[in-house]
Amino acid sequence: MSRTDTTQEWPLWEVFVRPKAGLDHKHCGSLHAPDAAMALQLAREVYTRRQEGCSIWVVPSSQITASDPGDKDMYFDPMEDKVYRHPTFYVLPEAVDHM
Amino acid sequence: MTSTMTSPSTTATPPRPAVAAGLAAGVSGASRGPGRSVTLSGSREARWVLRLADTCLIHAQRLSEWCGHGPILEEDIALTNLSLDLLGQARALLSHAGQLDGQGLDEDQLAFLRDERDYFNLTLVEQPLRRSSAHAPGGDFADVQVRNLLLAVWLKLHWQALASSSDAELAAIAGKAVKEARYHVEHAAQWVVRLGDGTEESAARAKAALERAWPYTNELFVDDELDAHAAATGLGPQRSALREAWLAAVSAVLTEATLAVPAASKFVSTGSRGVHSEHMGFILAEMQHLQRAFPGGVW
User: Fold this and answer.
1) Which residue in chain B has the smallest CA separation from A9?
2) Distance between A67 CA and the closest CA of chain B, angstroms
3) Per-residue model confidence as pLDDT tens digits over B174-204
């Protein structure tokens, strides 16, 4: 098999690990695997060896639609001067101060 | 031991003094000095636990030979993880066997300082897995996964049965190990199905690996006096009692993998009685040489 023959390679999977119940699954890396079941096992081997998680998601990388880095200024810069979107202009009553 | 001690004849010529003195010094050193072989007390419980401990230990050693040789990075890590799980199980069992043996032997002395005949692992686990031998091509990934499947199912059944052992410490060790074994079964089964039901090449290799391993599986279910004693005292299961569940679990995976269960053979290997194949001495040489050369060495 030629090193450059990518048609012979296993598909790429993105791995998301939930550190503990109540927290979100976080993207932690990717790996090659022949199918979903195997991807899950290999993710367990590679990314949770040190008790990093209590749940794993694997997603085919090809199924992720990503924003173009070239569109970064168009997408995100307009939000820069809209500080009023942060909910920091309210005084909370004592009773709900722990929100 | 000098020849005059073993000879039944009173007319035997005593050995020349210089040789006799040399022999006596060498032998007494061999039995007592640091780094020399330890012997077992004869406790049946200790010996029964050592069978399981040594099976985990030698299986871990064989799997560790694959470190850095896995077909892909992720599986290379997986194999080392499995090996470390087994090593952890072996350590707990060896420590416990040392207590049952009653001579104050620790896990390291038991792991590294016994003679070959005092190891009681299944013959299957000492067969070459990475390097070539007359009986195995060596380095065939199918052998790794097939052996893992056969053994992981067997170990899982042991841990499940041992959860209700009359020996509380053994039950605790089993409670932890059964989770690891469950994963080992899952992992090996996934691979065996993919190899058996994969390409023509992978199917042929999986079939050959299965046929190489299968004759050694008779030993997994042969009872002897130690098993009867273990069952009678509630220490652990008789091996014969595990056969049906083992065959059902293994057959289910093989069916999914489109692999046929190989024909039964009459061959029964004897590793768990301490009578090993020609490969055992080489494993022990590799495992033991540091402790023999530098007794008590740690890092």
Assistant:
1) B72
2) 29
3) 999 999 999 999 999 999 999 999 999 999 9
